[in-house]
Structures are given as structure tokens and as C-alpha cells.
């Protein structure tokens, strides 16, 4: 099964495998979990196993995301269309509007496609990523097809949290929660994908086994640089060296978004310290206080408070950790 490629989450894999084997898979699944846990990857694997039980090139292409896509233009509800991909039996949707919101034209285009085109023997799969980004209009358009779907169509939805999904959508799905894997398993998996083993071990601890986040960070030089800066800031906090912390944070006094991004990485590092990670120089109460201070400072930056004041105050308060 393609779903065997998903690390951990044995309950999910066993449940879906039994459903597929008995051909009793519900027509709507909802995969829920924090960003970086592989919800989209799991959705594509399930779709591939549903459409192509024997595997093959089409199954591999689907797992890689080479399927058709429903697109539309903001402000034009009649602009929706399906762009044909390598795998025609699967259609994916992801919000294209302001803030990542779904456009009703995308949903109506998908609906039109699956009702008006003939099914192959394999059936059809519809992948809807981040359905918490649906507004009432796009959700109502989706409900019209989920309530009476064409035969052979499987809907697989993903969301960061169950609470963010509209109840009308949630009630029509069987939900599964994805969980992080152990950091050691995460590091091993990511190293097998080509990440330097030492870096994989650090990032797996930092992101608490979130494989997708580790792979993304390892492939993003800018983010990797922020991780290194966060480590330097943690070392300064551990030494109670406000001068070193102030010097480092001063670089972000005119870069509000960069400063907020740095503090997110610093917060992740402090969280790892709370879990006892050897990769963080902060631990125990010291890590907990640093995490709280970083979160408070990040929220102030996001509320447009003067970044110079916020960051220099943070540097001074880190001396007390």
C-alpha cells in the first residue's frame, strides 16, 4: 500500500487498510493534524490505494501530487475550471482566495467535472486541502455533492484542527487524527530522504517529530539560518548574556516579519528544551520562561508594536531566565 509510506500513525493505516480491503471505505474522510504531520501526503496515499490497488506509475504520480486541479479567479464565481493533470482520476483543491480561502468557483468546477465526465473503472478521488479555509458559500457548494455523490467518488479532506471545520462538513466525514512520530523515528525517516543525519536529529527534536516540517526546514536555507540564530539566542539566554541577545536581536529591529519568524523558531527550541532535548541549552523552568517571553514578544510584533522596543525588552528579560 502507498499508505505504508506514511511514518507512524499505525491506527490510521490499519483502519484505512481494512476499509479498502473490504471495499467499505466511506465516501468522505477527514484527516486532521497540525501542520507538518503529513496530512496531504496521507490523503494522496489513500487516494492512490483507493484508485490503484495494484500500485503502478499512476499511483506513484498521484502520491507526488501530479493530479488534476480545480482553480478559479477571485471575484468571478463563473471562472472555475479543472486543469487536467497526469492523473485524471484525482482532482485536488486548495484555497486560492485572500488568506487562502476557497473560491466557490473551484468547488463548482470540481462538482461539474465529476458529474459530467465518465468514470474510469478505478473511480474518482477528490482531495480538498485545508478545508478550515472554506467559507459558508464554498462549503454549501461542497455539501451539494457530498450529500449525494456520484458512485465511485471518494472525498478526502484535510484540516489543521477539527474545530476549524464547519460542522456541516465535519458531520459528513469519518475523521482521523494524525500524530507526530518519535523524534528518533522522524530523524531516521528524514535522513533516508537525504537530510544530513546530524541536522535531521536536531530538527526532529526541534519540531517534535513533525516530518513535513523537518523536511521543509532542511530544504529552506533561510529557515535553517533562523534556526541557527535561535540556537545562538538560546545560548545567550542560558548564559544570561543580555548583551549577546541584544546584539543578535538588533538585526531584526527593522524587520518585523523576520523577527517574528525568528521568535517562532526560538519558541520551538525552548519547547524542545522543556521536553528535555539535548539540542537546546535551555531546560526546565528556564526553557519555560524563555518560551513564554518569546511568545509574548512575537504577539506584540504581530500587533504592530514598535519592534525595537519589543526586541530590546526581550533581550533584557532573557537575562533573568
Automatic annotation (TrEMBL):
It comes from the Bacteria. InterPro entries: DNA_Rep/Repair_Clamp_Loader, P-loop_NTPase. Coiled coil: none annotated. Gene3D superfamilies: P-loop containing nucleotide triphosphate hydrolases (3.40.50.300). GO terms for biological process: DNA-templated DNA replication. This is DNA polymerase III subunit delta.
